[in-house]
Every structure is written in structure tokens, then in C-alpha cells.
Amino acid sequence: MLTKKQLDLLNFIHRRLQKDGVPPSFDEMKVALDLRSKSGIHRLITALEERGFIRRLAHRARAIEIIRLPENASASAAETSPQISAPPSKIGVKGFENTNTPPSCVIASLEIPVMGRIAAGVPISAINQITHQIAIPQTMLSANGKHYALEVRGDSMINAGINDGDIVVIRETDTADDGDIVVALVADEEATLKRLFRRNGAIALEAENPAYETRLYPEDQVKVQGRLVGLIRSY
Q1: What is the pLDDT of residue 126?
Q2: What is the dihedral of CA 127, 196, 159, 147, to 10 degrees?
Q3: What is the DSSP string of the chain?
Q4: Residue 194 a catalytic site member
Q5: Degrees (nearest 5) of the Cα angle 66, 182, 43?
Q6: Tens digits of per-residue pLDDT, 103-159?
Q7: How far apart are CA 102 and CA 123, in angstroms?
């Protein structure tokens, strides 16, 4: 059984995942629950994880999956609650927005365009042509906004669980929070997949591999083309 604070936090995380496709930051959780410090949020997160309601993903900032909701959760949350099912035998799907539906349900899918390849290691020419379509579980896509996919080339995002050859699912947007993994267009010529941070009036595009250095650009030289919401891997 969950305490009121634990249930409030679980519902807050669930609502943000459904609305924005990414979990809230610890600061946002602290404000939402009216706590004085983030240490209280850490204790609540640990308690929810130990009780099997959430799962934290290693090597990713703000990466939390909702595994299940309690029976006494709010009706609106329970109606939209995703559940974990066994992964497919040949294709691995990692959802950054939602988890999978129960195995007894038919998983609806939508086709989205694959816009070519993007280098996770060094910038390449901007992607702008559709190479083919790919079917994506509908639970991975948010209700609002357009989505597209890219094939990853390079290893600079490997510590975020993104490997060479993976297909990343991107939700189109021109905004991002610090720490989000984004498709960034640099100088209107080159695109790259990196974590984005704002530092003293500049934009830092940070790799998830210590072999690659962080690149700094003037703010007007970087345009966000979309945020990472999912990943598909063929085994």
C-alpha cells in the first residue's frame, strides 16, 4: 500500500509521461508535491521502485518507466495506465514515453517515415528525405505532434543505450529541456543526435560517450528538430 505522497508522485509522473512523453525533473516533482528538498523525492522514488510501480533506467537522465498503477489510483490515470508485457522475440522496443500494453491485447501500430541516417558521433548533412516507412507501436507515440524515425550511425550516445544501427523515434518539436536527447540542426547545415544543455548564453551538445567532447555553439546556430521518445533495436 502506498502513502498519499507516494501515490501523488506516481500519478504526477504518469500524467507527465502521457502529456509530454518524458518524466518530470526532480525539481518539478519537488514543487508539485510541495516538498522542501529533492532528498524527499529521492526517498519517494526509491520506495515506488522497491514496490514495483516504477523502474529507473540506467545511464539516462530523467528516465523513469511506469510499470503499473495501484488499484486506488485516480480513475483518469488508471484508464490510461500502460502495463509491461513480454518483449517481442526478434525486435526490441524501448519506449521513452510509454511502456507496452498487456500481452492479451492487440498492440496497435502506426507507420512513420524514416528520414535517413543520423550520426550519433559526429554531425552529418541534415536529414530531409524519406527513405522508407516503419511501423511503430502506437503506445510509443504521443497523441499530439508528428513523429519520424532515424537510423543511428556512430557510438557517441552508447551510454544512453543508443547503439550504432538502432532506430530512434523522434517527436517533432522546436523546444527542449536541459538534458533532453534531441535532433539538433547546426548552422542550418548539419544534424546530430545529442543531449542539449544551455550554458551562459550558448548551447552545449553533449555526447553520452567520454571519448567525444562536448560541443558549444551560439544559441542562434542550433535549432531543435525533435526530441527522442523511443528506440527500436533489431537483434
Answers
A1: 60
A2: -40
A3: ---HHHHHHHHHHHHHHHHHSSPPPHHHHHHHTT-SSHHHHHHHHHHHHHTTSEEEPTT-TT-EEE----TTS-HHHHHT-----PPPSSEEEEESS--PPPTTS---EEEEEEEEEEESSS-EEPP----EEEEEEGGGS-SSS-EEEEEEESSTTGGGT--TT-EEEEE--S---TT-EEEEEETTTEEEEEEEEEETTEEEEE-SSTTS--EEEEGGGEEEEEEEEEEEEE-
A4: yes
A5: 35
A6: 433 446 778 888 888 887 666 666 777 888 888 777 777 767 789 999 999 899 999
A7: 39
CA 195 – CA 177 distance, rounded (Å):
10
pLDDT digits (tens, 9 = 90+) for 54-102: 887 655 555 788 888 876 554 344 343 333 333 333 334 454 444 444 4
User: How far, CA to CA in Å, does 216 sit from each of 55, 117, 138, 186, 187?
Assistant: 33, 23, 36, 11, 12
Residue of 48, 179, 166 whose CA lies nearest to 117: 166
Average pLDDT over residues 12-30: 82
C-alpha cell read off for 227: 526530441
Terminal Cα-to-Cα distance of the chain (whole angstroms): 39
Write down the catalytic residue from 85, 194, 223, 234.
194
Per-residue confidence (pLDDT) for residue 235, from 0 to 100:
63
Given the residues 19, 156, 223, 234, the one annotated as active site: 156
How far from chain centre, in Å, is Cα 27?
A: 18
Q: What confidence score (pLDDT) does residue 139 get?
A: 73
Q: What is the pLDDT of residues 197-220, one digit of tens each?
A: 999 989 999 999 999 999 999 999
